[in-house]
Structure formats: C-alpha cells, structure tokens
C-alpha cells in the first residue's frame, strides 16, 4: 500500500521501465509473500506425480478416473472461490481505506494556531510553540496506540516524548498518573488537547476589550479546528477498534487452500493417450499465484497498521508532522519561519502577470500551446510577447448576418405560434 514505486516511474509509460520498477520489485512484492508456499506446492505436486507414475496399469487407470472426476467439478469451485475472494478483497480494502482517511493530521490546527494565536502579545511565539508541542504530543499518543511500527520505533513513549522535546518532565508525569489508572495510551490524547484549549482561551482573553469583541469569531474558528482534530483522533481509534469479521477471513482462507489441494490432484497426468504429459506444474503454479496472491493481498490489508512492508508508515507520518511544525517556526530555535513575524510586504506584480496572461491559450485543450510552458515564449525586447507566441484570437462574428438569422427565426416563430381566438361580447 505504501511501497513508493510510482515516483520511480518515468513520465512516459514504458514496458521496460514497468517491468523493472514494478514487476521486478522485491519489497512488498507477491514473490516475497508467496515464494515459500509456491515451493511447497511444487514439492507436493512432484510427490503426487511420483506416486502416480510408479503405480501399476490398473491403479493408474483408477487414478485417472479420479483425476477426470476432480477436473469436472474444479470449474464450479473455481468460480465460487473467485467471487468470494473479490468480495473479501473489497471489504478488506474498504476498511483499510477508512483507517487511512481517519488518521489525524494536525495541519488545520497548525495553520489556525500560527495565524491567530499570540499575534498581539509579547509571549505570542512561546504560546504558539506550546500549542504546537501539545498537538504533536496528541498525534504521538494516537500513532503509538494504533501502529506496531510506531511502537517498535518508540518502545518507551513517555521517555521518547521527553527526548523528542515535545513534553517536559511535569507534563509527562501528568500523563503517567492517568496512565496508571487507565493503561491505554491512545485514550489519553485528550490531555494535551485540553492544555491547548486553555492556552488558546488565555491568549484571546489577554487582548483588550475592543480586540476581544473583534476576535471572538476567530476564537470560535480556532477552537473548532481543535475540536475537529479531537474528533479525527477518536474516529481512527473507532476504525481500529472495529475488527474485520474473523469468520469471513477463516472461510476464504479454508476455501482457498482446499481449492489448491484439489488442483494438486486434478492437474496430475491422467495417462490418457490424447493428453500431453507435464513435467512441471505450470498451470498449478498459475492458479496458485492467482488465488493465494489474491488471498494474501486481503490478509495484508487486514492490519494496515502492522509491521509489514506494505503497511502505513506511521513513523514517517509523524516525522512529517514534526518537520511541518518546524516550517511554521514553532519547533526548535529557528524563529525565521514564524508566520506571524515574517509576513511579506505588499507588492505589485501586474506587469509580469500581463505578459503571462497574454500567453495563456484561449482554447483549454489546445495541443500546440500545451506542448511548452508559458515561460518558454519569446518577446520583442520590450517585455511584450511576439506574434508567434500570442494565443490565436477567436474568429470575428459577422454581426449583420447574425442579426438577419435572428430576425428570420422570430418571423417563423410568430407565424407558427398558436393564437387563442377572441371572444365576441355580442354572442
């Protein structure tokens, strides 16, 4: 699911690059997941073939009848299993997709905090950094509670929070006291969010009465972003807590391996005179790749937050959140990225924009103008685009002809229109 192979593909499709970057990919590949089972299936096929080959003629005939009998019913069982695997995969993927889109991201509260918190106080930057730390602590607690990879990367969560510079000793002690009463770390994410709420409210309350009246709606929006983030943390926990039905996983797994077992015997050599003899189970391998491969994909999706190659990279997601906090200027000592103190001055770029807009093609899907970028056009030395780089003008409208057509159409409509007869008052 998260094996990054698409970024290595060339801009234009190529069969050679597709085989190199996709088909021959080892990490998270079907070969890595199935090669042991394929070796076992091939080994069992050769054992059955050896037993079949060294029987007397009468026994080989009886075995051939059994092989033909299994082949008769193999088609129906194959169809039934195909439908089951499709349904199984759809349900598994729907759950894994729901978990991914339920993962909480602190982007919105980051943005609202950087823009509206502490912009008029002397300690505004310190307040913003405090809120950012608590938001990162919330994501850390949630990720640690749902991801096996994250737990392996940070085995001691409280010590890791202090080493990462997200919480201090007093704050971690507050979490540890609650953890002793309720030992579920991911359920403690409300604590740093409550601290965020207090800091945000105090930041607005420190403003003057006039500013407070003007910024009351901003406070509601910032609080709403924190509330939405809290709801996202709860949603991902609910998605993870709801397991996939075990009986469906058992049913599909049993049916798949029963089908492979039937295939091992049904695709043996039947010693019929008009049937070729196979020395390698090519069709058995193809069928095993199809059915066991589909089953394995579903099994991998069952726990998308595990430690497999294809599982969600929650550690990378958290690293991304920390880096984003740094770019907001609210994590670390580098304050040059602080949004509140680095707003650019007003600037007018209309002259450059006038040149660019003249190069934009009028027709949206004009192939000739989409072959090159807008910056590749030339100019006449004065900053104006040349005639060859200007977009084609629309064809002029012949106004007199158009007016004649409209008047003619109105006359026809007037003649053919229905007229209601007038009533005679003398009748």
Written account of the structure:
By secondary structure, this protein is mainly α. The chain has three domains: 28-104 and 244-307, no CATH class; 124-242 and 316-327, no CATH class; 351-409, no CATH class. The protein is 64% helix and 0% strand. The longest helix has 46 residues, at 57-102.
How large is the share of residues in beta strands?
A: under 5%
- Summarize model confidence as the mean pLDDT: 79
**Number of DSSP helices?**
17
Oligomer state of the chains in this structure: single chain
N-to-C SSE series?
A: HHHHHHHHHHHHHHHHH
Report the principal-axis shape. Answer: extended
- Radius of gyration, in angstroms, nearest whole number: 35 Å
Low-confidence stretches: 387-399, 417-427
- Give the terminus-to-terminus CA distance: 86 Å
Structural class: mainly alpha
Q: What's this model, at a glance?
A:
With 427 residues, the protein is an all-alpha fold.
């Amino acid at each position: 699911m998260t094996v990054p192979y698409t970024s290595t593909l060339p801009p234009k499709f190529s069969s050679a690059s597709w085989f190199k970057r996709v088909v021959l990919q080892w990490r998270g590949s079907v070969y890595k997941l199935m090669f042991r089972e394929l070796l076992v299936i091939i080994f069992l096929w050769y054992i059955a073939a050896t037993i079949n080959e060294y029987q007397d003629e009468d026994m080989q005939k009886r075995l051939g009848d059994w092989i033909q009998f299994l082949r008769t019913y193999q088609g129906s069982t194959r169809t039934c299993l195909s439908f089951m695997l499709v349904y199984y995969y759809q349900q598994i993927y729907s759950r894994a997709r729901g978990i991914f889109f339920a993962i909480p991201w602190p982007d919105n509260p980051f943005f609202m905090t950087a823009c509206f918190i502490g912009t008029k106080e002397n300690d505004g930057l310190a307040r913003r950094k405090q809120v950012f730390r608590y938001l990162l602590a919330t994501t850390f607690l949630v990720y640690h509670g749902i991801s096996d990879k994250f737990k392996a990367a940070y085995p001691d969560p409280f010590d890791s929070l202090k080493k990462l510079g997200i919480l201090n000793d007093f704050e971690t002690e507050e979490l540890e006291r609650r953890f002793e009463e309720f030992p579920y770390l991911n359920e403690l994410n409300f604590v740093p969010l409550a601290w965020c709420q207090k800091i945000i409210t105090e930041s607005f309350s420190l403003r003057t009465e006039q500013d407070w009246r003007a910024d009351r709606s901003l406070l509601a929006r910032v609080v709403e972003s924190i509330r939405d983030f809290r709801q996202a943390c709860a949603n991902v926990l609910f998605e993870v807590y709801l397991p996939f039905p075990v009986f469906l996983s058992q049913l599909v797994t049993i049916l798949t391996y029963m089908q492979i077992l039937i295939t091992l015997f049904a695709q043996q050599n039947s010693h019929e005179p008009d049937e070729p003899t196979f020395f390698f189970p090519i069709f058995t391998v193809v069928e095993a790749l199809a059915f066991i491969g589909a089953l394995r994909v579903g099994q991998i999706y069952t726990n998308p937050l595990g430690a497999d190659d294809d599982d969600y990279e929650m550690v990378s997601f958290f690293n991304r959140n920390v880096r984003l906090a740094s770019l907001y200027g609210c994590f670390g000592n580098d304050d040059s990225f602080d949004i509140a103190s680095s707003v650019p001055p007003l600037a007018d770029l209309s002259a450059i924009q006038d040149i660019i807009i003249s190069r934009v093609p009028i027709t949206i899907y004009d192939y000739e103008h989409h072959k090159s970028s807008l910056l590749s056009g030339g100019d006449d030395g004065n900053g104006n685009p040349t005639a060859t780089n200007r977009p084609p003008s629309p064809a002029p409208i012949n106004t007199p002809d158009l007016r004649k057509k409209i008047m003619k159409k109105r006359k026809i409509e007037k003649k053919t229109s229905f007229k209601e007869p007038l009533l005679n008052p003398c009748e």
